[in-house]
Amino acid sequence: MKKTTIKNKKLIVASLVISAFLTAGFVFAIAFTVNYSVYQESFVYYYDNTSPSTFEELDLYASTASVSIRYNDTPTEHLVRVDVNFLIEGGFVKGTTYTNYYQPINWENSTGASFSLESRPSSFANPSSWFKSERNSIVVTLRTDVKYNIACTAITGDISLNTIVGSCFKEIRLKTTTGSIDAIGTEIALDDGITCETTTGNVLINLENCSIGGNVFGKAVTGSVSFYATNPVFTGDCDMTLITLTGGVSADIIQQVMPGASVLGSFSTTTGSIRVTYADNLSNVGARFTGTYTTGSNTFVGAASGFSSNGNGSGAQFVSNDFDVAESAYICSLSTVTGDITVSASSS
Questions:
Q1: For the chain, N or C: smaller number of CB within 10 Å?
Q2: From CA 285, how far away is CA 327, in angstroms rounded?
């Protein structure tokens, strides 16, 4: 009889516990539904200078937002326009604004343009932070007749830079922790190079008929790095670094005009493959690619197109026949721990 009583008590306790969980879940579901909402709001900021500097400073920071930097397609008096668009959705979002999740926007426009959108520290006591999604965006519009020095950092979000023909920059620095980066330029001038870096995401640098001073740096810790260049002209010797730890590296280079200087390239990955496509039609421009791997292979394509190799083992080189007499050259080291290296090249 005593065993039956104990058993019944255990069943009652179990039932009460289950009932409590079900009740709590039901109450939470009701509260979640009642307070489910979509918050949307937009802000616009301007920077003006009646006498633009040689290079206008543009510094951008965003905790959670995609950033798009582009040029105006209609006449504008503003040197910089920043459109901020918040879209926050989820349970318990009802009645909140962006200041529940972010510090007030910091906008400095006295000497140059500086924009900052920084998250507030997460708080477990704030249920609106538990179940929300965000699709925030920042659109930066630049003026076509002004030169810029650009630095942009995002913690979570993609960064894209689309230039126009004739754009001039002192330097471009784009960095995100979680997100991808696209930097695309045609007939632009870079005085001090370009840096694109992400922790988790992909990097694309695409430069066509551009003047490049300084160095080129692209890095993804986990993701791919892709570099495309058509007829770049370098104002001085250039260090070109393309690096990823887990992912692939690719470079496509077409050189049909004198580059003006030599390029020292370092393309590397820990786990992933490296692919390079190179072509020049100039007898005084050469290239040399050295492929090093631990576990993988070298594949060199173009032995009948002005290149020759000394094998395909680790450390093998693929060299243009005019390399020794070239006025300018691409001298590139390709290195992977685990992966394959493929170089397709031609030289006249």
A1: N
A2: 6
Where do the DSSP E strands lie in 147-202?
Answer: 148-156, 159-162, 168-178, 181-186, 189-190, 194-200
As a whole number of angstroms, the distance between CA 313 and CA 297 comes to 7
Question: Whose CA is closest to 62, among 110, 98, 95, 109?
Answer: 98
- pLDDT by residue (tens digit) across 44-66? 999 999 889 999 999 999 999 99
One-letter amino acid at 78 equals H
d(CA 347, CA 46): 49
Give how far Cα 165 sits from Cα of 66, 141, 186, 335, Å. Answer: 24, 15, 5, 35
Q: How many residues does the chain have?
A: 348
Q: Which two tokens stand for residue 184?
A: 């695309």
Separation of alpha carbons 270 and 268, rounded Å: 7
Beta carbons of 305 and 247 less than 8 angstroms apart: no
∠270-275-279 over CA atoms, to 5°?
Answer: 145
Helix (H) or strand (E) holding 100: none
pLDDT, one tens digit per residue, over 230-289 is 999 999 999 999 999 999 999 999 999 999 999 999 999 999 999 999 999 999 999 999
Residue 157 near residue 134, CB atoms below 8 Å: no
Tell me phi and psi for residue 328, to 5 degrees.
-135, 150
**Residue that the structure tokens 């979002």 belong to:** 93
* Residue type for position 46: Y
Question: Whole-angstrom Cα distance, residue 328 to residue 305?
Answer: 19
Is the pTM higher than 0.85? The answer reads yes
Beta bridge partners of 292: 335
Residue that is written with structure tokens 């640098």 in the block: 205
> 């979570």: which residue's tokens?
156
CB 318 within 8 A of CB 345: yes
